[in-house]
Amino acid sequence: SNVSKQFIHIYGKPVLAHTLQSFENCEKINSIFVVVPKGCIAYCFDEIIGKYSFKKVKEVVEGGNTRQDSVYNALKRIPEKCRIVSIHDGVRPLITSREIGDLVSKLVRFNKKDETVKGVIIASPAYETVKKIDYDNLIDHTITRSLVCMAQTPQTFFFKELLEAYKKAKADDFTGTDDASLVERMGWKVKVFIGHHENIKITTPLDLFLAELIMHRNGKVK
């Protein structure tokens, strides 16, 4: 399908609308900046923001060529007075308001104990055995599973440090695989909060099917 994944419908509602609802309902979230593909801003306002009355959405920002560019575009629109920012994939609609709020609380708490902690991310445990391989696909060694996790979003940071990390990445022409990797390379610490496998990222038809099943089971839809 040519439809962007965040605009695909689950139970008659766009994936992005399901995701935004969790942020809208989280008392720790004051403002929401939504990033959408080029040419989709009007559609997002009409079919999602307006239609579902999301009051916390302050701006819809046009994305860039990469995820990192898209996030940076949004960060540049956020007022300087902002203290904490939570970055989330629009195609992870199963995140809960409680989890979003917990990450904010944990960041503040961890930073009080150790001020070099500038971020907290949610991740799922690695249930499969993880192998490090070489370029010929030969096993180099087996990684201890308890020391591995699968990074997800939200990834929550102090805004000042995150913006600084993004500016440095831009200056160095560095591309990270997630937001935490940019903060890590600045020498700051990022804590991991183990979540669950249900916080799936919708990238395939199977993911969409699973999300529908989970929503139905959780009573999110009738």
How does this structure look, described?
- The protein has 222 residues and is α/β, with parallel strands linked by helices.
- It has one domain: Spore Coat Polysaccharide Biosynthesis Protein SpsA, Chain A.
- The chain is 36% helix and 24% strand.
- It contains seven helices and ten strands.
Give the SSE layout:
Layout: E1 9-10, E2 13-14, H1 15-24, E3 32-36, H2 41-50, E4 57-62, H3 67-75, E5 84-87, H4 97-113, E6 117-125, E7 130-133, E8 139-143, E9 149-158, H5 159-172, H6 179-184, E10 189-194, H7 205-217
Q: Briefly, what is this?
A:
The protein is α/β, with parallel strands linked by helices and 222 residues long.
- Strands in their spatial order, largest beta sheet: 5-9-6-10
CATH topology: Spore Coat Polysaccharide Biosynthesis Protein SpsA, Chain A
How is the main sheet built?
A: 4 strands, mixed
**Approximate helicity band:** 25-40%
Q: Label the CATH architecture.
A: Alpha-Beta Complex
Radius of gyration over all CA atoms, rounded: 18 Å
What is the rounded distance between the termini? 26 Å
The structure class reads: alpha/beta
Q: Count every beta strand, where a strand is a DSSP E run of 2 or more residues.
A: 10
SSE order in H/E notation?
EEHEHEHEHEEEEHHEH
* CATH homologous superfamily identity: Spore Coat Polysaccharide Biosynthesis Protein SpsA, Chain A
